[in-house]
Amino acid sequence: VDECADPATCPEHATCHNSPGSYSCVCNLGFESSSGNTSLQGPGDTCEGR
């Protein structure tokens, strides 16, 4: 299953990266996770402009 096929998988300003059995959302250049992590950590975590 490609979770990234659904554009709503990741929040605005994030890119979805599919991997076997999983996926991750990473903030686009110029944005950072509201939790301060490199990748998003779950529901409610968003990408904010730096």
From TrEMBL:
InterPro entries: EGF (IPR000742), EGF-like_Ca-bd_dom (IPR001881), EGF-type_Asp/Asn_hydroxyl_site (IPR000152), NOTCH1_EGF-like (IPR049883). Keywords: Disulfide bond, EGF-like domain, Glycoprotein. GO terms for molecular function: calcium ion binding. SMART domains: EGF, EGF_CA. Residues 1-37 form the EGF-like domain. This is Egf-like module-containing. It comes from Lynx pardinus (Iberian lynx). The lineage of its organism: Eukaryota, Metazoa, Chordata, Craniata, Vertebrata.
